Amino acid sequence: MELIQRGRRLRGHETLRRMVRETRMDSSSLIYPMFVIDGENIKEEIPSMEGQYRYSIDQLPYALEEVAKAGVSNIMLFGIPAHKDPLGSQAYATDGIVQRALREGKKRFPELYYITDVCMCEYTSHGHCGVLQGEKVENDATLELLAQTALSHVEAGADMVAPSDMMDGRILAIRQRLDLHGHKETPIMSYAVKYASAFYGPFREAAGSAPAFGDRKTYQMDYHNRREGLKEALQDVAEGADILMVKPAMSYLDVLSDVAQATHLPMAAYSVSGEYAMVKAGARLGYIEEEKIVCEMAVSAYRAGADIYLTYYAKELAGWMREGRIG
Ligand code: PBG
After folding, report:
1. Exposed, middle or buried, 190 (CB in 10 Å: 0-12/13-18/19+)?
2. 84 is catalytic
3. How far is CA 284 from CA 250, 288, 290, 325, in A?
4. Pairing of strands 308-311, 136-138
5. Mean pLDDT of 136-163
6. Is the CB of 115 under 6 A from ligand 1?
7. Alpha carbon of 30 to ligand 1 centroid (Å)
8. Residue 273 CB less than 6 A away from ligand 1
9. Closest among 272, 211, 199, 205 to 47, alpha carbons compared
10. pLDDT per residue as tens digits for the range 213-224
11. Which residue's CA is the closest to the ligand 1 atom numbered 6?
12. Out of 84, 194, 280, 315, which one is annotated catalytic?
């Protein structure tokens, strides 16, 4: 055989394989999503998300300690309020669940970096991500409440806000509100390219945020569309977003890759609850190897262009990265 090029030459030895790796990661890029709930003495496992919990504020410090010990420095907070109403008023209440969690967290673990999900769906009685007029989610009226929510998070100590509602114009509305109150340096991570996805199923159980009627297709994106992802991303760049997210991760790597190439902003990929639940279920049945699957999923997101990875496996991944088992 007169083969000049042999791809296998670079695969013959583990040290060499590591030398020529194109994708390298470290745990500083991981964000761990966490659920905080009104009440006391609560640490309840989310049935569809084995190993993930809802924590009341008194239990939160123990959970944060685990996060810090695992080597994860960034968290994303989601709140589950005791009372929901049509306007989602607990989302922007000064003593709302996320606001209190921030104060407690910042006091106990100031070294962690606190990002908050800004949305209405966990707080509205109807479960939609905005204010309703009849059965329609009213875009512009929702912007005011989102801006108020983001500001209240920052005033309670949030280091960064992450709007996930998919209303038009929310990045600008939030940016202007934060600036007006002197928070010019607080970054916004936009869930810029967020698809209407069945992969959010377990999250909605966790947060009790499934819409009471209809679905989210009038605001979240249609998953048949790829170029529209760019349109949404570029719009958010124009409105002042600092970081762009694509969500979900695994089935949307084409979109992630497009947006990463078309913009110069740091890119985040969110491996959502359904991805986590599938891996957990498959592993429990013994059909797949959990660690290997999780590592492969994570690397694929970074390979596609992610700089930041949100995952319910953040604590495990940080350990595997440290031990050199991944990345
Ligand atoms: C709030 C929000 C959702 C998720 C993140 N922020 C749910 C939704 O849009 O229905 C999903 C996260 C996950 O599934 O892990 N809008």
Report:
1. buried
2. no
3. 20, 8, 9, 21
4. unpaired
5. 98
6. no
7. 18
8. yes
9. 205
10. 999 999 999 999
11. 164
12. 194
- Is the shortest distance between the CB of 119 and ligand 1 below 6 Å? yes
Average pLDDT on 264-280 reads 98
200 lines ligand 1 (CB under 6 A): yes
Mean pLDDT computed over 181-203: 98
Q: Give the whole-angstrom CA distance, residue 166 versus residue 221.
A: 8
SS3 of residue 102 by DSSP: helix
Q: What is the pLDDT of residues 46-74, one digit of tens each?
A: 999 999 999 999 999 999 999 999 999 99
Closest residue CA from atom 12 of ligand 1: 272
Q: Which of 203, 246, 279 to mutate to test the pocket of ligand 1 (most atoms within 8 A of CB)?
A: 203
Helix (H, G, I), strand (E, B) or coil at 243: strand
**pLDDT-based confidence at residue 178 (cuts at 50, 70, 90):** very high
How large is the average pLDDT for residues 99-112? 98
Contacts for 41 with CB less than 8 Å, ≥ 6 apart: 56, 58, 59
- In this prediction, residues 247-276 reach a mean pLDDT of 98
Q: Give residue-wise pLDDT tens across range 8-45.
A: 999 999 999 999 999 999 999 999 999 999 999 999 99
Q: In the structure, what pLDDT confidence band is assigned to residue 305 with cuts at 50, 70 and 90?
A: very high
d(Cα 253, Cα 241) in Å, to the nearest integer? 21
CATH classification for the domain delimited by 23-322, as one of 1.25.40.10, 3.20.20.70, 1.10.238.10, 3.30.720.120: 3.20.20.70
Q: Whose CA is nearest to atom 2 of ligand 1?
A: 164
Written as six digits, the tokens of 274 are 């359904």
Task: Specify which residues 162 forms β-bridges with.
Answer: 117
User: Is the Cβ–Cβ distance between 230 and 252 less than 8 Å?
Assistant: no
